[in-house]
Structure prediction request, 421 residues.
Amino acid sequence: MEIILKIKALKGFKDIVPDEIELWNFIDKTARSVFERFNFSEIRMPILEATELFARSIGETTDIVEKEMYTFPDKKITMRPEATASMLRAYIENGLYAKKPVQRLFTIGPMFRHERPQKGRLRQFHQLDVEVLGSENSLVDAELMAMGALFFNELGIDVSLELNSLGCPECRPGYRKILIDYITTRLDNLCSDCKRRAHTNPLRVLDCKVPGCREQIKSAPSVQDHLCQGCRTHFDNVQKGLEMLNIEYSLNKFMVRGLDYYCKTTFEFITGDLGAQSAVAAGGRYDGLIEELGGPKNSPGIGFAMGVERIVLLLQQQKSVLESAEIDLYIAGIGEPGALSGYRLAHQLRKEGWSVAMDHEGKSLKSQMKQADKANARYTLIIGESELEKGKGLLRDMKNRDAEQVDVELSATAIVNRLQQ
RNA sequence: GUGGGCGUAGCUCAAUUGGUCAGAGCACCUGGUUGUGGCCCAGGAGGCUGGGGGUUCAAGUCCCCUCGCUCACCCCA
Prediction:
């Protein structure tokens, strides 16, 4: 290489090269297909938002807000670290709640968090995000999880669903106090991280990975045993809904959420195939958030986000490779007259809807045939000098190697007829 | 922010205790078939071994620094 490339992509930012994009499109296509069957509509929001939107929804003291956001120097504008807050802002700002009492929305796009990259975690990453705004019915919770399960099933990847309830502003503080008491009496047996968490984020002690901590946590008080009447009923009904739809799940009383706005139902689709990153999708209910952001009073909501990069990794290791795309025709011109005749013909066929490839580098026929093969062409049209004198070319079927003479100068009908078969 | 591992051709990786060690496979190009793809055969191009400094008669190999990648912790999709 003559030119030394000094400029590289930023740490944690990645190109999605053509070989990978098929996988991304497959995910995208599957998502749209599934979400539309559940009557979800797509919405797209800007990537930049007011910093305050995230500070208020995600939580001022969360790591995301405190140290992971890409915020511009004036401190008022931030590249979104997640989609829910933006979507709620759009829902409120556009008065969507007034147009339809319950909105079912999904979006897909890049999110940004300034973290140290590792497997399945980038600084620019992509999420598929679905939200149901305006319903507090537990059947919605279960339906959303069922939709996630169906999505992963149709992708052909193996994940399992875990469920928990975090309680609500009414019952969580009580549980929190009980938990802190429990932790405090065993502080000496916990790791240094957990000693710190005891003050900053006691719930996080529950999912510490250190064996010694896990030992202590085993007998820790469970949220599920300290739910208020409303949360208890809701939680039970969510499970009934899942059972009604035959969705497999397991309860995980240690499952915690990182974002402040969650309440009641929380769930994750997890895998053991992504190293430290077990969550492929995660979400939950956030009943007070819409109102807090200036939306209508008493408007509940629930949603979850799927990490697209993580799904891509799973597809790459769990599923056989997708067939590469096929093109209809490759035109191999021999000599300038053949190449020019093919040049014209290619455009004509493309206008009629066919995918056509050809080479403009004056390569040998053998080389062009190789390219046709590599491009996965159904047919190759060879336009040589001797046939061209009669206005003919040789159309070759790349699978069975049959070849026939066809008109190339007067009309493309014969070629089109072949392609239509 | 903290800790571990690794940087050799476009990709995946070799190179005995420092001593022809700059290699292989895949991919690419050309030819075998003056005009016919996949298989095969022959040949070709492609590297200041991430960068800098040091030790040595001799460094891809050892030491230091630096940059980058990666995995993990924290945190999280």
User: Anything to note?
Assistant: The radius of gyration of chain A is 28 Å. Chain A is about 40% helix and 20% strand.
